[in-house]
Design goal:
Strand order of the largest sheet: 3-6-9
Largest sheet: 3 strands, antiparallel
Number of strands: 9
Number of helices: 8
Strand content: 15-25%
Radius of gyration: 18 Å
Order of helices and strands: HEEHHHEHHEEHEHEEE
Number of domains: 1
């Protein structure tokens, strides 16, 4: 990021007080992003926060997947969608297709990016956790049912993986988690450079 030095100590204090019994100070996400933009800051993806997360992403979708996911997170956080707390994956994928962060030169980049994201969501749903080393295998055996708390069935999957992946693409999206718990949106400095942490969290529409 450029021009962050004068903001570093101040903008990490842009918080809002939640209405919990014991108040916690959450980051005022939208205000922090607007302040950084107004100061002329630029945002570039560097790397997942941990080597395990990086390894799992590469195993899921190739060496370019971390950068692709980073571009989708940029859409969610930097373009202001995190202020409403949720953004469907379809919107993020459209953004990634248009920006083409890894510079695919093929005629049909849309199918490539959709495949990357559908595989990622499927792997996350069937056992991959970014914080734990993953062996590339599904931990689900025989099929599974997705249902609401009230018992309504949303989807059933046995051998129709492609259809289930399409379902996940249409029904999942990025979610803004607790900033006090995960410390995302925190600006920090390492070796003279400034960084901001974005968190990858998904939920059903």
């Amino acid at each position: 990021m450029n021009h962050v030095n004068s903001l570093y100590n101040i903008k990490n204090k842009i918080n809002k007080e939640t209405g919990l019994r014991e108040p916690k100070h959450e980051v005022a996400t939208g205000e922090r992003i607007r302040t950084l933009k107004s100061a002329g800051c630029a945002l570039n993806f560097i790397s997942p926060c941990t080597e395990i997360a990086k390894r799992n992403l590469i195993l899921s979708g190739g060496k370019e997947l971390p950068e692709i996911v980073g571009e989708a997170l940029k859409y969610f956080y930097w373009e202001g969608n995190a202020t409403v707390g949720f953004a469907p994956f379809g919107q993020a994928i459209d953004y990634v297709i248009n920006s083409n962060p890894v510079n695919y030169s093929f005629d049909d980049v849309e199918s490539i990016y959709k495949k990357k994201f559908s595989d990622l969501l499927y792997n996350m749903f069937t056992g991959m956790k970014l914080g734990r080393s993953w062996n590339g295998l599904s931990s689900v055996n025989g099929g599974y049912i997705v249902m609401k708390d009230d018992g309504d069935v949303l989807a059933y999957h046995s051998c129709i993986a492609d259809e289930f992946k399409e379902f996940l693409l249409t029904r999942l999206g990025f979610e803004a988690p607790s900033t006090s718990r995960h410390e995302y949106m925190k600006i920090f400095k390492e070796n003279g450079k400034y960084y901001i942490k974005f968190n990858l969290q998904v939920r059903f529409v």
